[in-house]
Amino acid sequence: MNNFKFYNPVKIIFGKGQIAELANEVPKGARVLMTYGGGSIKKNGVYDQVLAALSNNTVVEFGGIEPNPHYETLMKAVKLGQEQNIDFILSVGGGSVLDGTKFIAAAMKFEHGDPWKLLSEKATYKATAAVPFGAVLTLPATGSEMNSGAVITRVETKEKLSFGSPFTFPRFSVLDPETCFTLPPRQISNGIADAFTHVMEQYLTYPVNAPLQDRIAEGILLTLIEEGPKVLKNPSDYDAMANFMWSATMALNGLISTGVPADWATHMIGHELTALHGIDHARTLAIVLPSLLRYKSEAKKEKLLQYGERIWNITEGNEAERIEATVQATVNFFESLEIPTKLKDYDVNRDTIKEIVDRFQKRGVKNLGERADIQAEDVEKILEMSL
Ligand code: NZQ
Ligand code: ZN
């Protein structure tokens, strides 16, 4: 096992009726900026529950944070937060609202000009402070509720970049599965595929003799495979939603990446497909991951065979056959969620592949993957396999 440091200070408040706990978690007397998205929280009662719990605080609202949150929108919230002397932010919604909130929180305290530098020049400009914030999560998918990362889109330049810092962990996250009963099937499918791929990017690398991390990762994958379809069939199934929600959180809170290599190339490539074509985040992963596994099947051989056997019961055939059957099982799983896995399904062609390769070269993106051996030309080949 590799050496590691593990730090995760996020308090999770899980279960039915737990939004009321905000009254105890949000600092007394704090002036609260409540951030939210396009209005789903007003249709499912979450908005009313939050305001009831915050009846003793001054609440300033900032709605309209879009999926793949826009820097341009978030900067308006930064201005509002500064004008209103906000001292706590509460994110109410999915991963986009929460990622946007992490950016707002860090940007409000940024002292070196344009806060976009936190993403575009992250080697130089790191967050050194942030306004404290918490979350009410309404969409199991990203794990943002229990990690310190965020992904922000700049519309003007069609860039989608990430940042993170020890200051951008939520103080707490309220996870009430009942808030997710109104999710449309597309968002449930996306959430399952996103969480699944988070586990895969931390598990499907090479063995370092870390059986506990492997088995936790496999436990999350098996739970997603088992519970995901139940949620899709009946989004009001509390137990299935609870199991899905906790799985998505556990998939990206740092626990399964302790002491093991991580890949993340699928996410890096996927972000470009969202930035250029607006394809839902999870769908980009379902396009890239199978091709990346095939392209890197030699380097990932041992873990692919383990994953195939333990997750999909693939034990017949020679190694090459088992690996192909394993990747195909993964494709079938994504497609069973009604997520198409080919670029042509999204009207994306070779021009986009060229553009992504160009962007990586210009930005100096290189050495991706757990062995730091995926270069721009490999990205081109991986994407061509997804055409
Ligand atoms: O905007 P509203 O009206 O709230 O509607 C949202 C949005 O249209 C809707 N929704 C959310 N909760 C709902 C609901 N509709 C009905 N009932 C509910 N309970 O769902 C739509 C999508 O929401 P969004 O927040 O965009 O989805 P998700 O949670 O999948 O977040 C995706 C974003 O997170 C980033 C992605 O790149 C993308 O920008 N990620 C963040 C990560 C992190 N911070 O660690 C890791 C991930 O890999 C990912 O990159
Ligand atoms: Zn993701």
Automatic annotation (TrEMBL):
Database matches in PROSITE patterns: ADH_IRON_2 (PS00060)
Record keywords: Oxidoreductase
Signal peptide range in chain numbering: none
Top-rank lineage group of the source organism: Bacteria
Record-linked CDD domains: BDH (cd08187)
UniProt keyword annotation of Oxidoreductase present: yes
Stored InterPro entries: ADH_Fe/GldA, ADH_Fe_C, ADH_Fe_CS, BDH-like
Span of domain Alcohol dehydrogenase iron-type/glycerol dehydrogenase GldA: 9-177
Keyword Transmembrane recorded: no
Fe-containing alcohol dehydrogenase-like C-terminal domain sequence ranges: 193-385
SUPFAM superfamilies associated with the record: Dehydroquinate synthase-like (SSF56796)
PANTHER family reported in the protein's UniProt record: ALCOHOL DEHYDROGENASE YQHD (PTHR43633:SF1)
Name the UniProt record assigns to this protein: Iron-containing alcohol dehydrogenase
